[in-house]
Amino acid sequence: MSEQRMYPGMSPDERTTFAPYSAFDIPADLRELSGRYDVEAMALRCRNFRYAEEWLMMMLGGWVATIPELPVKTGLGKVIWETAQAADMLGNRLPELRCGKKAIEASKSANDAFAAFIQSISEPERPDLTIEKLAGPFDVLMPHLVEVYEQTIRETDQICDAPTIEILEDIIRKRRRHIVWGQEVLDRLCDTDELRERRKARVALLDAELTATGGVTGTLAEDRTALN
Amino acid sequence: MKRFIHHDELARDSRFVRQDNAQSTVLATLPDDVDTIVNAFEQFSDMIEESVRGTAAEALFESYGPGFALTILNEPLDPDAPAGLTRLLLRMHGILVGEIQALEGAARSLWDFPDAPWEFKMNMARQTWDEGRHVQIFEKLLSHLGGSIGMFPESTFLFECACSKDPAMRVAGVNRALEGLACDVFRDMIKYAEKTGDEKMQQAIDYVLADELTHVRFGSEWVREFTKGDSEYRDRVREYRRTVDKQFSFGGARSDREDAAIPIAWEERLEAGFTEEELKDLAELSGSGPSKKTLTQAADILRERHLAKRAAQKEAQKGEARS
């Protein structure tokens, strides 16, 4: 057994023992216990996020059969699976936020306008509308979700709500990959001014509709003001 | 976006050639009678010729006539057989387009059944990713063998038969009947790859087969769940699956008969959740088509008549040129 280590001292009673590598070797945790959302507010946000993820997954699934470009069909497979996983993780967080065990399937649109916006994105049907189909999710909805998730991560309590942060960080990491892939596909498909114009027009239309809904949480305007 | 689409609406890029599903329907319902089979194929001869024009199957049509599919489907794959590579490519291409339609079927289940339980959607989302990878795998294997997309026509018979508007029937048709058929075909392909020493094909298809077992399990579990407490509904779903199984036995080419080109993969199917009773039923159901002898006789007649017709056409052309 090793000899006990002592603090230096002028007299024997000043010489107290100490444990090497003890707590004061670790930097202090300077984070504050504060966040913009309480448990109930965060549970509502998770339900709103889950609604967007679930419908995103479903509409992409609907389009696989009517998109003629084979690499797009196969590429969407992975996006669909990872989007389903995102919705699943958000659902699994709900019981942890006091929503009850059955809440894991609870999706909720922030308002009727956002639900209508989701239906607008999913409208294009014909096989010659791949640009209109992809521009909705990859140019508008996904970037919006990333923006809101990042804001949520910044503003929620870093210690108390760390599990939500973990989930959102994981979703964002994959979502950024989806956006890069989808926008690269769109760049290739839009190889003439006319096609680029079609993409631009679709994005402008959906962007305006999204802003009017208040976004996935219905609080886009307030969130942006709070940020400023 | 509407719920439920017709098989004609499946979108393809310009490389693909679409074939009318009538030929597949005929193949699925053949009786054990030489004359009936010959008449059926002669009736569709022009349509079959039209559908293979400009594809690699055109050469098969010219050699064997409208019944070329009888010869191709009913003989096991043999690397040393005449046109062995063409037949392998035809099967590989058939698997590729089958995987595309399985991808579309699984993905459509996400949109067509918005009120289905969440776990069902998770399973279908996972299957969508798997089928997407399978399409990529078979596109690469096709290329590995020297083939390419569109070299043979595509029939959308698979989507037409299995994509019911009822969720229990959809999973019974797609996940149990067709993914079950995939187990049979892939086990046969793995044996072929082992025989020819093609390790790339053997390993890739072995992974795909592992995925298919999972998809069959999804089907078994969801049929049970959707039909829980309703025996009449369960019976109807079972009958639907049996109909699809019969349609995709290709007149006994996929069966447990000794002369079957694609034997039933009992071991894999049992592992995937089929019961012994279900497999015995499948063996009986799939083996009840025309015998190999009948099909061979019909194919020979069709070939002879086709070659005679071509010779007559040639003579007529010569006559016209002379006059």
Give your account of this protein's structure:
The complex is a heterodimer of chains A (228) and B (323). By secondary structure, chain A is mainly α. Chain A has a single domain (36-218), classed as Ferritin. Helix content of chain A is 64%, strand content 0%. In chain A, helix 1 runs antiparallel to helix 2 and helix 2 (70-96) runs antiparallel to helix 5 (162-189). The longest helix of chain A has 28 residues, at 162-189. The model of chain A has no long low-confidence stretch (mean pLDDT 92). Chain B is mainly alpha-helical and 323 residues long. Chain B has one domain: Ferritin, core subunit, four-helix bundle (Ferritin, Up-down Bundle). Helix content of chain B is 70%, strand content 2%. Chain B has helices spanning 22-28, 34-43, 45-52, 57-64, 68-74, 84-112, 118-144, 157-162, 167-196, 199-226, 231-247, 266-271, 276-286, 292-322, and strands at residues 18-19, 154-155, 254-255, 262-263. In chain B, the strands form two sheets. Chain B has a two-stranded parallel ribbon. In chain B, strands 3-4 form a two-stranded parallel sheet. The longest helix of chain B has 31 residues, at 292-322. The relative contact order of chain B is 0.14. At the A-B interface, helix 1 and helix 2 of A face helix 6 and helix 7 of B.
